[in-house]
Amino acid sequence: MREYHIGQTVVPYEIEWSPDRSTIGLSMDGSMDLTVRAPVEASLDDVEEVLADKKQWILETLYGLAEQDDPPLDKEYLSGEKLLYNGRRYRLQVSEAAVPEPELRFDGTRFELVVPESDPGNTRRKQQAVVDWYIREAAEKLPERANSYLEKLGLNDVEIEVKTLRRRWGEYRPGKVSLHWRLILAPRKIQDYVVAHELAHFKHDEHSDAFWNTVGTLVPDYRDRREWLRVKGNTLTV
């Protein structure tokens, strides 16, 4: 089993060589294992080139991140439904009030969605209120996950922003780390893994052994967390 690295994610894949194939094809099953089917005359470099070309498809299949700009209306946001937050699901209670727009609140044990009396059933507006709450919460809480790692790495003046990222959970640029707001849905240990991964890039640009050793000093069980994100990342939806 070989491995293909995409940002925080390591995707294991197996190559099936076939004399009957003329092109290289990819498939992914429900366990999120990747299979590469290739003609016998293809080289490993040929396979790696196809993986690079199909990187967006791999990430979209794993995480569904391509849908985030206009997420599907899988929920109706009715009382009794549950919303994911920090890896746990909390019950939603919907109430009506004299408010201009839906507003989501959280008391630590349950969510309350207050909707306008004049239009209580507008699912799209309710969804937007939920997304807006998550974005505000992520902008406040996710950067805090970096504090201990910054100290351990001896880093200063690091900007950490929370935004919508296309097809990735985090992104490193010199002096700056960007995190996808949907990470606030994940367990805190998964949030920490992504943060530690991006901060390790301040020490090592490439995903070298030295890079992963640095990640390991911050998150010793990073392999388990990395695997969780690969297999369950597509569950982190609103």
Would you mind describing this structure in some detail?
InterPro entries: UTP_pyrophosphatase-like (IPR053136), YgjP-like_metallopeptidase (IPR002725). Pfam families: YgjP-like. With 238 residues, the chain is α/β, with parallel strands linked by helices. It folds into 3 domains: 2-63, no CATH class; 82-138, no CATH class; 142-235, Zincin-like, CATH 3.30.2010.10. Helices cover 33% and strands 26% of the residues. The chain contains 7 helices and 11 strands. The protein has helices at residues 44-53, 55-63, 123-141, 147-153, 188-200, 209-218, 222-232; strands at 2-6, 9-18, 25-28, 34-39, 82-85, 88-97, 103-106, 111-116, 159-163, 170-173, 176-180. The strands form 3 sheets. A 4-stranded mixed beta sheet has the order 1-2-4-3, with helices on both faces. A 4-stranded mixed beta sheet has the order 5-6-8-7. It has a 3-stranded mixed beta sheet with strand order 9-11-10. A hairpin with a 2-residue loop joins strand 5 (82-85) and strand 6 (88-97). The longest helix is centred in the middle third of the chain and has 19 residues, at 123-141. It starts with a strand and ends in a 6-residue tail after the last helix. 27% of the residues are buried. Residues 66-72 have low confidence and may be disordered.
